[in-house]
Write a structure and sequence with these properties.
It is a single chain. The chain is built from seven helices and four strands; from the N terminus they run E-H-H-H-E-H-H-E-H-E-H. With about 170 residues, it is an alpha/beta fold. It has one domain: Rossmann fold, CATH 3.40.50.1110. Strands 1-2-3-4 form a four-stranded parallel β-sheet, with helices on both faces. It is globular, with a radius of gyration of 15 Å. The chain starts with a strand and ends with a helix.
Amino acid sequence: MKINYSSIRFWSTLITDFFDIKINVINQDFGGSTLKQCMQRFKRIILPLEPRLLLLYAGENDITNNQTPTNIQFILTIRRFVSLLPIVYISIKPNPRRYDKIIQMNITNNLIREDIQNMNNVDYIDIFNQMLTSDGILRSELFISNNLHMNEQVYAIWTKAVKNYL
């Protein structure tokens, strides 16, 4: 089960990428969402599906809209309803269109990683750094022409990172 943004909506090979490890993926993404919208959607749509694992990508649109991401609050909300549900948080990704927010995204990722490291059944996957060169430069070739959404190379990186976790 995944809940997140258009970054996942455009992952056209999501279900087949995980077919070999026998995971039933239910893609509950919706583009342009904020964490507040994710919380509302979780209670109304995700919770009734009784997921066994939640892969969460969230916070990017909050930063873009100059809001403080409330990722930890979202995780705590999930915990109120399903205390043992494993949650895997995928770090906020950098992208060329929102390059002016890259420092804030990295700081937010580090804060989230620190906040969740002592939580039970909550893990963190860092894709942010995998999308940079060894010199720390954003790999612009990983994005389609709108410089916001990712191409198949990124989804291969994400697939490998998630499979390594699983």
